[in-house]
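Give me structure tokens for this 133-residue protein.
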Amino acid sequence: MTMTNAIHWPEWVPLAGHHLRVSGVHFDALRIQGVRGEQVAARLVAEADGNAGPVICEATGFRWMYFLVAPGTARDHGWPLGVQRFGGAGCRTVTYIGVPALAGNTWPLFWYSEPTPTAPYVVPSQLLAALGE
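Here you go.
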């Protein structure tokens, strides 16, 4: 028996709360601050008909938006000013990214766009298009 409405729950997404994951292992992350990040995320999700891949929002502080791309792919593109890249070859530091569960209390992190079977990661070229690059 197969479930047609099963939730896609990647191994790196915690079952409850939120956990820190090392960027460059399960995903690379691109980070954009505040209103600009929210605008880019909204454009990305609209262009992808709601299936944009994993985007995490930090609800406090600088209100960072984290766009998770497949491991090793962030370095393959030239990102504009204001976009910080974490993970992949060429990064000299280890960066931990907070990843919320798909359900329950995950404050101050939440999914702006969840990973799905057809969009397990954000597509870098689509993110660049949403950035207007």
